[in-house]
Every structure is written in C-alpha cells, then in structure tokens.
Amino acid sequence: MSTTHKMDWLRDRNLVLILVILASLAWLATLYQWQTMTCGACYGMSVACPMCMGTGKPVLIALASFLFMWSAMMAAMMLPSVTPMVLFFSRVSEHRRREGSSDAGTWPFLAGYLAAWFATGFVAFAAVKSIQSLLGSVPGLSQYNKLFAGGTLLAAGVYQLSPLKSSCLRRCRSPLDFLLEKWRDGNGGAFLMGAHHGLYCLGCCWGLMIVMFAVGLMNLAWMIGLTVVMSVEKLSRHGQWIGRVFGLLLIVGGALFLYKGSR
User: Fold this and answer.
1) Using H for helix, E for strand and C for coil, what is the string for 137-167?
2) Measured CA distances, 155 to 111, 162, 216, 249, 252 (Å)
3) How do residues 194-215 score in pLDDT, each as one tens digit?
4) pLDDT in tens, 28-68
5) Count of the separate structural domains present in the chain
6) pTM for the whole thing?
7) Domain limits at 166?
8) What helix, strand, coil percent values describe the chain, rounded to 5?
9) Of all helices (H) and strands (E), which one includes residue 262?
10) What residues have CB less than 8 Å from 223, skipping those under 6 apart?
C-alpha cells in the first residue's frame, strides 16, 4: 500500500470512528432524556402530555429544553445514514486539495447538515405548542387521539409513495451527482453544501419524522425502527422499494387507527 493510500485509509477510518462516537453520544443523550423527561403515563414524550412537554415553564426555557432534546434525537437518527456521504465528501475535498484546488472542510459540511435539522426543531416546537394550546382550549379533543395518530400515519405513508419523496431520496442516494452540481469552495461553501444536503434529506425523511408525533417523540422503539428504515432507504440497493413497502405498512396502520378511533 502506497503512503498516499495508507494516509487515505487512516483518515477514512478516523473519520468513521469519530462519527460513530458522535452518534453513540447522541443516543446516550437521548436515552438519558427518555429516562428523565417522560412520565409513567406515556410511551415516550407525548405532545399531548403536560408532564412530558413541560407545560407551564417559561417559553424560552421550554424552547431550549426542547431544542436540546430535538438535536440529540436528530443526531442519533441521522448520523448513521449520512456517514457514507460525509466520507465521500471528505475524499473529494482531499482530492481537490492535492490537485491544488481550494478544498472544503468536512466538519463544516457536517455542521451545515446538522444545522438544517436543528432548524426544524423550531417548527416542531411550534407544532407541539399549537397542539397543546388547541387541547387546552378544547379538552374534549383528547378523546380523538387515535384519529390523530391514524391521520399522521396515513399522511406519512402516502408521502412515502409520492414523487417528491422519490426525488429527494435519489439526491440522498447519489452523493457524486450532488457534489458535482452543488460544489462550493472553502469552509463557508462546505457549510452551505451540508445545509443544502440536509434540506434534501429533510425532504426525504420528514414524512417518517412526523410519525414520532403520533407514537411519542421519545418512543425509543420507534426511533430505532425509523433510523433503520431511513438508513436502509439511503444505503441499500433496494432502499427505494423497501421505503415504499414501509409506506404501505404505515397506510395500513393509519387506516386501522382511524377505524378504531371512529368506533
């Protein structure tokens, strides 16, 4: 093995090791929050549960707590599936540096990717507060939890089969095409590329993420299951078809919830 190839292998190994450590820390933080922030009445952090969601706290404190929880969740769930993209980006950047072109930092790229998902935490927080406000104004709505869960699962399943989902998934599964089209030099450019890729990933996965609002935001079993599905979708040769099969299962599950909730 040449010196250059050995250096490349060591750099790739160290990068993967660091990403594995970061994902592990994110899962540990999520596990800690699951143990400390959920109540005995819920199977995970329920948006309808005042004890889980910290109703009554000052808005800024509640927002900071939620964003910390959300950031740990997103890092835990998304780092496994984005690792190949980060590794490929690192190789391209290093190749450009050796050819004398301006390179772009790998860590700014990852920071931009995670920043895109972090930003969705503000939207998620607003959705949670809106649901809580609605339930507070109309307490009788809580009896329709199954209908809400069924509608959410149904919407997620339909999106799994949509052309927009397929388009975003193709972008996530084709790192070379993405970098050829979106490449920007420098660390600032790397951050913007990471954020742009994060938006494609958001377009690919938001339908699955809203499932957490139906089953509980800190439902560990569903978090692990969805992480596996999202990773298989992006990394497996048959990922697109597996995602569609899962979408059909969500539609069936949503229909069952709607049926039970309407009785």
Assistant:
1) HCHHHHHHHHHHHHHHHHHHHHHHCCHHHHH
2) 30, 11, 16, 12, 11
3) 999 999 999 999 999 989 888 8
4) 999 888 777 655 445 444 554 544 545 567 788 888 888 99
5) 1
6) 0.86
7) 3-262
8) 85, 0, 15
9) helix 239-262
10) 30, 73, 76, 77, 212
